[in-house]
Design goal:
The structure is a single chain. It contains two helices and no strands. It is elongated. The protein has helices spanning about 1-30, 35-55. The longest helix has 29 residues, at about 1-30. The protein has a domain at about 15-55. It starts with a helix and ends in a 12-residue tail after the last helix.
């Protein structure tokens, strides 16, 4: 029966730790100004476009573009 108590305490500790991580993430996001959010989104878009361009140059057509049959 002690193993179940130990597992229960470990589960509660895991839930508490997860909640703390989520709360910290939300606080960090709340501190961003709209201009900072916009800048980050533009950076992510530029990186995604750069990655797509590199894949196109390598001949990678992506999933779902191949012939089936």
């Amino acid at each position: 029966m002690k193993i179940w108590k130990l597992l229960g305490v470990a589960g509660l500790a895991g839930v508490a730790a997860g909640g703390a991580i989520i709360a910290r993430d939300q606080r960090q996001r709340a501190q961003l100004t709209p201009d900072e959010v916009r800048e980050r989104l533009h950076q992510r878009l530029a990186e995604a476009e750069k990655d797509d361009g590199a894949a196109a140059e390598a001949g990678d057509r992506g999933p779902g573009t191949g012939d089936v049959g």
